[in-house]
Amino acid sequence: MGKPVRIGLLGIGKIARDQHVPSIRGNESFSLVAAASRNATIEGVANFPSIEAMIDGCADLDAVAICTPPQLHYEAAKLALKKGKHVLLEKPPCTSTLELAHLSRLAKDAGRTLYQTWHSQHAHGVAPAAALLRGSPPRRVRVTWKEDVRRWHPGQTWIWQPGGFGIFDPGINALSILTKIIPDDIFPRSAHLYVPSNCQAPIAADLELVTARGAEISASLDFRQTGDQTWDIAVETDDAPLVLSAGGGNLTIGNKEVPRDPGALGSEYVSIYRDFAGLIAREESEVDARPLQLVADIFLIAKRSLVEPFVE
Q1: Phi, psi (5° rounding) for residue 162?
Q2: Hey, which residues are catalytic here?
């Protein structure tokens, strides 16, 4: 094994602390050497108030993982790539499809890796579901993606602002699974967004989509779920129906739950950083823009209704 990739983390929020820090430190291909945040620090590394300060203060920094709100992703990633750093982007990637396309070109021009991550694509049940659907394409799909925003995004006001995605911050996870498991292009046909009267982004959405072969996909997304959280995708095929539950972590075919590979990675983010190391070693990038394109198209065609104000 060669010298570990010296990586810095931009944005020290819940997802960074819960997933990125332990996954980086548990991967011998990386060495976490720096962090940048206006309000938080990570013990044991050099801490800086901004990405500019981090890059200037760590001359031998190799890569940056960007975990800020999506409104800040593009400028940070652009700077890092122009400074010759590999870049890992949390989801959602950017606030526009054109920004993501531009970052892809910058990475190519710089000869650096850009990895746009979709953590739900790394869930245990997703790869076997994709393999099954290649042989038996879906006839109908039902997505139910409902969670409690106060539990998963406490105090995160950015999510309700323009470019914050609202319910599509988690909803894009479901769309990323669809683009991974369905062997066809997917197009939005109609959408109804429910926007709190004091917010700029939707708190819920009802969607109708269709595949290139005509399979219908309906989706119900909601940030107002309390109690049990629901992240399910049910697929009807000409063979046995399959259900991905727990955000793609569990796969059931017919009435039989598919056992997990005992050698499978236990964490989506462990898998992400394994793949990031491989991309860097091969001098490749991986940027799947389709989930973001679906969200952008949904916003273009959607009907909007105002609902009661959101109160934290």
Answers
A1: -55, 135
A2: 91
Helix axes 97-110, 290-301, angle to 10 degrees: 160
Cα separation of 266 and 105, whole Å? 33
Q: The tokens 């990895």 sit on which residue?
A: 115
HSE, side-chain direction, 13 A CA sphere, residue 257: 9
Closest among 197, 232, 162 to 306, alpha carbons compared: 197
Q: Is the peptide bond before 183 cis (omega within 30 degrees of 0)?
A: no
d(CA 215, CA 238): 12
pTM over 0.85: yes
Which residue's structure tokens are 């940030």?
Answer: 223
Q: Could you tell me the sign of the dihedral formed by the alpha carbons of 12, 14, 15, 18, in that order? A: positive
Distance CA 65, CA 83 (A): 14
pLDDT in tens, 33-55: 999 999 999 999 999 999 999 99
User: pLDDT tens digits for 238-287?
Assistant: 999 999 999 999 999 998 888 776 545 458 999 999 999 999 999 999 99
Residue written as tokens 């916003």?
A: 299
Q: Name the 3-class secondary structure at 19.
A: helix
C-beta of residue 122 within 8 angstroms of C-beta of residue 272: yes
- Per-residue pLDDT of 176-222, as tens digits, reads 999 999 999 999 999 999 999 999 999 999 999 999 999 999 999 99
* pLDDT recorded at residue 257: 87
Q: How many Å apart are CA 164 and CA 304, to the nearest integer? A: 17
User: In the chain, what percentage of residues exceed pLDDT 90?
Assistant: 94
* Strands 86-89 and 256-257, bridge-based pairing: unpaired
Residue 50 in tokens: 């901004």
Q: Which domains does the chain have, with CATH numbers?
A: 5-116 (3.40.50.720), 121-261+296-307 (3.30.360.10)
| Amino acid sitting at position 95 | T
pLDDT digits (tens, 9 = 90+) for 161-170: 999 999 999 9
